[in-house]
Amino acid sequence: MTHKIDLKMGRDAWIMLLALSLLWGGSFFFAEVALSEFTPLSLVMARVGLAAAVLILIVRLSGLRMPKELQVWRWFFTMGFLNNVIPFSLIFWGQTHIASGLAAIFNATTPLFVVVLAHFLTKDEKMTPARILGVIGGLAGVVIMIGPELLGGLGNNIIAQLAVLVAAFSYGLAGIYGRRFAGQPPLIIAAGQLSASSLMLLPVVLIFDPLPKAVLPDLIAGAAVVALALLSTALAYVLYFRILATAGATNLLLVTFLIPVSAISLGVIILDERLEISHIVGMAFIAFGLMAIDGRAYSFLQAQIRREK
Description:
13 helices; 0% strand; globular
């Protein structure tokens, strides 16, 4: 049975995308706090392991059952490797060497990779001029919001920058690969992916990184790990797979444009931070990019031009 993907997102998909941007926007903050007590590898293990345990418990309590087919678990392990093991490890390590703002800019290249990959690897998410323009506009908006001055550090820590860029590429591949789970409950897919990621990471952590920086992490770092696991991972991936099933990989990974918007908006609302002109301009570029990729504004403009003729 083929699963219909609506490339023009409806209201529910946009609401879920905004919620996902809030959850993942917080992950950069939680990770920065947790890295004071955890090494990058042990933090990744704690993040996916706790999230997997909670989701498996919820699956059991909800009366659902995890798949037993070997092929499905092969998919879970591949998805976990592309969507968790590679990007989480590289981004957390990269954050120890480059500014989090610069890491966010590199992370925002994910939709660019998805647009190209989806064109060649899928039948229904082809590259269009509007999509390419939208990705460029959205990426420009991220740079403007976070601060072009950060680009002055592009020549420093090249390996760390490449690591975050590879993580963005891996996220793009995962978005395309995850389409094969169409029809499965998002809760099951998220639990399977995170369980597979935990099983892959456990022997690596035991061999190369058996202990956190401190034997007993302080309360703040521990709370950051719990928030990272439960909010930015467990809940976030349930939303992730729901959006992927209904709106496609390209639309899903627009969330990387929205993450800086969410982070700055939360800072203004909760921390009473100041909203700068650059933030407003950047948000306008991102809004343009989102509308161009979604296609509704472009279709409306074409219809108006035809009507005038």
